[in-house]
């Protein structure tokens, strides 16, 4: 089991914002969705593009890849529309000691 990676202080990631961190060679995008934090692999499953360069839809709870418009559910990583059909991996997130933490636990 890998160690937790500190993303930021809770006050540095406001609702509707996202931040990229790395766990070794794994890019992870962490999103604050109305006070709940979610982490996904920062790589579109359709094309190898960073999801953190895309846009968030807080109402839908999704992130959209800026390259071809594939959208993914922040809560479980499932693909919501073509051209993506494969989900992106999700990772655990915890809030402790005034900070947001995640890790690649695969």
Automatic annotation (TrEMBL):
GO molecular function: 2 iron, 2 sulfur cluster binding; metal ion binding
PROSITE patterns in alphabetical order: RIESKE (PS51296)
Keywords: 2Fe-2S, Iron, Iron-sulfur, Metal-binding
UniProt domain Rieske: residue ranges: 5-102
InterPro entries associated with the record: Rieske_2Fe-2S, Rieske_2Fe-2S_sf
SUPFAM superfamilies: ISP domain (SSF50022)
CDD domains: Rieske_RO_ferredoxin (cd03528)
Name this protein carries in UniProt: Non-heme iron oxygenase ferredoxin subunit
């Amino acid at each position: 089991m890998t160690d937790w990676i500190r993303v930021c202080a809770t006050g540095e990631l406001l609702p509707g914002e996202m931040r990229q961190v790395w766990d070794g060679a794994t890019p992870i995008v962490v999103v604050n969705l109305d006070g709940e934090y979610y982490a996904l692999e920062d790589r579109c499953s359709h094309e190898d593009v960073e999801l953190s360069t895309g846009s968030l839809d807080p109402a839908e709870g999704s992130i959209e890849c800026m390259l071809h418009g594939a959208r993914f559910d922040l809560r479980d990583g499932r693909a919501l529309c073509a051209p993506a059909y494969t989900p992106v991996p999700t990772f655990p997130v915890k809030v402790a000691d005034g900070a947001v933490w995640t890790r690649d636990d695969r």
